[in-house]
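The data layer described in this paper is built around a simple, fixed record for each protein. We quote a single record here, exactly as it is kept in our systems:
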Amino acid sequence: MSDKTKPFRPGEAVDALGEREGDFVLPLCLPKPSLLIGEDLAMIVLDTIHGQRVGLPLSPQGAADLHAVLEEALRLLQARNGGSLQ
């Protein structure tokens, strides 16, 4: 994706789930998501392989918890292969 994409605007985002019932599968996403953190809301912004942008809202504490969980998961995966995580 080029760097000329419009910034993600939560107020203009469309509800991907809508009023539908059942599970939602997020489409394949490109690497390097963006993380926006405000006082009351954090937003992970993912670019899909179809050129769409998806925002996942979290509380700031939820973003910190997600970071801790992912860091530990990476540490465990790399430890199995004899590597280390910096």
